[in-house]
Amino acid sequence: MKEQLYRKEIWITIVFSVLLMLTGHCATLFVAFPFLKGGMMWGFPVEYIVPILMGWFGMMVVCIAMALVCNKFDDDMEEFAKSQGQTVMSDKTGGK
Amino acid sequence: MSNEFAIDNVWVGVIVVAILFAICYFIGWWASKMTTSEEDFYAAGFKIGPVTNGLSMAATWASLATFLGVIALISKMQVPFVYLWIQWAISIPLLTLLYGTSLRRMKAFTPATFIKARYGKGATITIVLWMILIMIMYALGQMIGLGQAFEMLFGIPYNVALVVSGIATVGYITMGGMYGASYNAAFQMIIMTVAMIVPMGAIMKAMGSSGWWFPPLAYGDMVPAMLKVLPTFFDMKYDLRWYFALIPAFTLGPVALPHLAMRVFTSSSVKNARWAVVWFVLFLGLLFAGTYTSGFAGNYFVATTGKAIAKADQTLLILNVFYNPMWVAAFVMGGALAAGLSTVGGNLMAISGLVGNDLLGILAPNMEAKSRIRWGFVALGMGGVIAILLAFKPPKFLVTSILWAFGLLASTATPGILLGVWWKEANKLALIVSANICGLIFIIISPHVFPSIVVGKGATAALGMSGGLVTVPLSFALFIFLSLIFNRMPALSAWAPSLADKQVIDRIHGWGDYDENRYNGKVWPVVLALVCLLISFWGLQPWKF
Question: Which of A30, B56, B147, B379 could share a disulfide with B185, CB 3.0–4.6 Å?
């Protein structure tokens, strides 16, 4: 269980880091893959409006998922520590 | 400095500024009554809820440059600068994910609180000094903007405007501590969003756009006319390396900004810190999208009316003076002031925390908490005064000095924080050596200090992008390799991470026990270091742009 939680933490961090980078640096994809350019959306070239939307709503969706997944993970960690008779660092322990 | 389009009636500006500052001082006074401990002064008692904190985060991040400098740079660089700006929204989500919640768990006041627990005194002094330098540069940019805004509103000389606005600003921030900075920032975010978006709707209507009802995203019908008069506006002018260089300097730099991290630390819980980030992205996205619209409208205005804007920093005000009633233009400048005030508030609180808590905690460990808070107040005021004094000779582009400082932060502080949280091998001496070497190299190869020794050219070098592509990955690589070497040299055993240092890592990640094997790999850090060296070498190749 301990090993599983550790692996899960690492994967959660990697996956959300990559997703955040993709949403914030979406414009780079249009430079790396120029064939993606050329279309129009809401009157704008896609290479203009898609990075704006990804950097706003796309990132917001990633952050909502991040809050849900990471908060659930914190619960699992606390549950595991409790099952082992351990205390974890928190406001209750004064951050110690 | 003379203005192209000044507000004719000075009293309109006086009224807007007086109301704004009266509210800020009232919030500061109200907040000062809640400040009774160090936790209150530096972290608002760890009690700020998600929505308020989301607003405060967005306000602290969105500086005066959002109203002045950015629009000027969009006019100069057009769409690539929009891309540069978009990626800034990652900063707080990424820092929250990578270390913000871990440090919130340990109730840190600043990132240096963690540096002290993890690396000890020597490394803390190194990182704190770099952070203070960068915070003063950051506050300097805001002070310049505040001075310019007062100059435009009141028509008074820049130096007088700078002193008046600077003293008024430092006064209310000093009064309220982090409670005041947090609630003021939340209020200021609302003001700046309304000031950016609503008047822009009227401007777009006057320009003939049917999308005036939602300025951030509904100006697509202006695109054909824009392309007719300015066909290059949407061109992605630069090569792939230019866009990649945004990551080391402009994504990884802000990740270590102490005033942003401190906003995460004020959250009422670790879980609420994550929800605050969601609100932050929503609010900041709205404001930033309004900024892109303003940049678009500024270019559209120049192209369609034939009127040249000599002072591009003033584009937003010029558009408002041209299309909207005078009181609306004054309100927009009030929004710009709010943006500057909230960021200066964050900067000065960070300086205060770094000096009052982190530095004094090392230099005078037995000092009473009350005295430390007093010194924190002194540091806060002194930081403001230094920024005002430095702002008497402002750089050409308001935003440049701030952006350059991000690369410096990424070269000095970011590797120490990230590897410190995620890697037990991270060595104290290796941090001091790599941070100082790479910080100095970054300064040397930038055009601002030694113009004859520069990596990159033009705006790319001036903004610290080309320098950052060299020194940020180099800093990570050097830190990793030196850590592995120093930890295996018996003569340097005092600098190796102790068991207590390593236990800090497990504890802040939420573990109840200690396991030597966690966060202690060798292969992946070496792979990362090798990749970083390749990227650094890529940055040294001749730059086209």
Answer: B56
